[in-house]
Amino acid sequence: MNIRVTDIPAQTVGRIDVAHVSISLGEGADAFEAVRDxxxxxxxxxxxxxxxxxxxxxxxxxxxxxxxxxxxxGQLTVDDQPLLGPSPDRGIVFQxxxxxxxxxxxxxxxxxxxxxxxxxxxxxxxxxxIPKLVGLEGFEKFYPSQLSGGMxxxxxxxxxxxxxxxxxxxxxPFGALDAQTRSLMQEVLLDIWTKIPTTxxxxxxxxxxxxxxxxxxxxMSARPGRVIDDIRLPFARPRHTELVTESEFVRLKRxxxxxLRRPDGFSLLPRLSPLGVPAE
Amino acid sequence: MAVGRMVERVPGVxxxxxxxxxxxxxxxxxxxxxxxVNLGIVTFRxxxxxxEVVQSAIVLLKSPKLLAHVSSSLWRVFAGxxxxxxxxxxxxxxxGRSRTASDLLLPPLELLRPIPAVAWIPLSILxxxxxxxxMIYITFIGALFPIILNTVxxxxxxxxxxxxxxxxxxxxxxxxxxxxxLPGAAPSIVIGLAIGMGTSWFCLVTAEMISxxxxxxxxxxxxxxxxxxxxxxxxxxxxxxxxxGSSWLLTTLGHHLMPWRHPTVxx
Lengths: 280, 267
Hints:
heterodimer, A: alpha/beta, Rossmann fold, 4-stranded antiparallel beta sheet, 32% helix, disordered N terminus, B: mainly alpha, MetI-like fold, ABC_transporter_ATP-bind (chain A)
C-alpha cells in the first residue's frame, strides 16, 4: 500500500492547463469578476506558487481547480480531462483545517480510502503508512482538537495525499500558523513533495514563502486577477532556510515587491475563499 | 475572604456545604409543617412533614402499586417520546437538507408549534380510541417540536467547508449525510432530545392527572382526591427521580456517542 505516483515514472500525471479562464462570483447586482483571462500551464510534477494581494482571486482559481467553483469563460483541464466537480484526484488543503472533529487522526486520514470502499484493515494500513511521511507518528489516536495548528495541517496533507492525487492544491495552508511553525511546515512540505513529486499549486500572499517553495511563481494583479508575472526560480533543491539571505533571493523578492506595488498590483480587498464569496 | 479561599482549596469542604444546604431545607420544611406556619399567601397547614412523607414512601415501596404506576408511566414515555425521536429526527433532516421538504413541511409545523402540548388533551381524547393512546400522543407532541427544531438547526449549520472537503475526498451525498452531517448535527440533536425529554414528562404527568387509570401522575392526583397528602409529595418525588434518571441516561448516551467532545485520554 504505497503511493501510486512513486511507482510509475514521475512527471507523467498532473499537467494542468488554464486556458483563458475568467471566473465571476456573486449573484445579481453583487456579481463581480474575480479573475480575468488567466492563461498558463503547469507541468506535471511542478510546484508553483500563485502570489498576489488579498482578494485578487488566487483562491478563486484554486477553488475552480478543486471543482468547487465553475469557470465562467475558458477551460481548465488536468491531463487533458475537463474538470467535472470535486474529485479525490485533486486534493485541496485550506488555510483553516477542515478535519472532521469527530474522527481520530487515523480515521480522518483514512476517509478517502473509506470512500473508495476499502475494507477496514486495508484502510488502517494505508492510514498508518502516511503519518510517518508527514511526521504524525504517535498521534494517530488523537482527535483534531487535541493537535496544534501545524499538526492539524500535517493531517490535512496526509488525508489528501493518501488518495494519490494528480494535483495537490493548497490555499495559504500555513497562513494561520506562527512564523516558526510556518517555516518548519514549509520544509516538511518540500520534504514530502520530494518523496511524492505531485503537481502542486500553492496559493500565498507571502513573497518569501513563494520564493522558498516554488519552482515557478505566478504573480497576479488586484481584482479582477490577471497574471502580471511568471517567474522561474533558479534555486537548487534541496532548499534550506539559509536560502532566504542569498542575494538572488533578495533580488527576486525586491522584483516581486515592485511588481505588486504598481497600481494594478495593489489592493485592499477582503479575502476570497475557494468556495466562493464568504458566507457572511 | 480567607474562609472563601480555604473552601475553594479543600473539595471535601465544598461537598459538606452542599449537603448542609439540602439538610437545612429539609429541616425548615419539617419545622414549617409541624408548626403549621401560615405566611398569609401560603400556608403549611395541610403540608405533611418530611417524616410522614418518608413513612408513606416506605409503604408505597413495599406495595405492588408502585411498579404498576411507574411501569405504565415509563411505557407511555417510551412509546410517545420514542416516536417523537424517530419522526422528529427524520423530519429535521429532511427540512434541514432540502428546500422542497422545508417549504412543504415547515409551514404546517410552524402553525402547530405555538399550541402548548397540554392544550391538545381534549382533542386527543376525542380523536383516539383509548385514553392510553391519547396520553401517548400528548407525550409525543410535547417532545416532537424541540427535537425537530434542534435537528434542523444542527443540520442546517454544518460547516460547508467540511462538506466541501468531504466531496473533494470522494464522498458521495449518502456518505456525506452519514459521515459529516449526522455527527456534525449530533450535539444539537442531543440538546433537542434533552429538552424533549423534559417536556415529555411534563406533558405525561398532566395527561395522566386528567385521564389516567394508572401512572405516577394519576397516583399523585388520586392522593389529592383521597386526601392522602403525604402521598402527593411521594408522587412528586418519584416524578422528579424519573425525570432525573432519564436525563442522566441522555447525558450518558451523549458522552458515549460523541467522545470527541470530551477527549480526556490522549492516546
